[in-house]
Amino acid sequence: MRHTSAWMRVRIGFFVAAFMLFAIVANTALAQAPDPSDQVHTIAKLLNCPTCGGRNLADCPTDTCTQWKQEIRSQLDAGKTQTEVIDYFKTRFGPTVLQEPPKEGVILLLWVTPVVILIAILIAGVIVLKRISMPRQTGATITTAVPQVADSYAARIEEEVNKS
Amino acid sequence: MKNKTLFIIIAGAASALLIGLFITGMVLATQPGNRPATGALAPDFDIGLYQGYRAGLPENIKLSDLRGKVVLVNFWASWCVECRKESDALEKVWRQYKDRGLVVLGVDYLDTEPAAVKYLQSYDTSYAIGDDIQERISRAYKITGVPESFFIDKKGVIRKTVIQAMTQQELISTVEGLLND
Are both A50 and A73 inside the same structural domain? Predict the structure, then answer.
């Protein structure tokens, strides 16, 4: 009985392992993700599709993008570096071809303005909150009730103390 | 309490400003604007012509250098399926009227030169074709796609705009009219 139970566990373990292996292989086969090490894909990821309004060139199946990816491949085959290929597209089609627009000129203003406004809001918020948390001062003077002891009375106390 | 109200007003105004800037930017970015009107002077531009597609013109030309000729500025691309419908007609009309003063100037839009040259060879194109570097020309003409064509008369004035592929007959009737002016 014990032997049968152990054998069952081995069999179940085998099937579980086989199923997991199948799942991993199937997932890999179905995903069919482009090889990230592929330089064409890497460069295409940095560029926009010219006709799809901001869509990534690497993920775009249109004829235009297919042609652009062929152009990337041709330039890499001709010995150009990644920077040179990107510079070619930037020069030929303008900076809007880049997925991340260069932080220069008017575009720099677009990057900086929201940050400046947010910082200004934060500073204004801190100043206002500090003001709120400070105690309020009114025009009336604050008076502290100090017991007034008459000079003669004090002198008598001192005399009595000295006597004892 | 007054400070709190002030803070809310400032934060609200700043947020509204940010949202306003964002919306304005989006609207401006997505609106192509109006094309140059018929009857207006055609926006001038420089264009570098592809090797083998200069049709007797210099490598770099200005549109304004072509005054005295009827110019058909045709925006196209090798990836444009619709452009294929008019390629033969453009070539035939150019060959028919070039000696009477017609210049067909193809402006290659968002294209790569190898793909463009392959396309042109397949249509046996011989009229002038140049590259729209950084979309300067297409932006000046506010095109919304390809093909788009602008017929410019001898004085440099836009006389007709066509936002689709043209037939040979349509091309001939427009070109004849402008050449006879």
Answer: yes
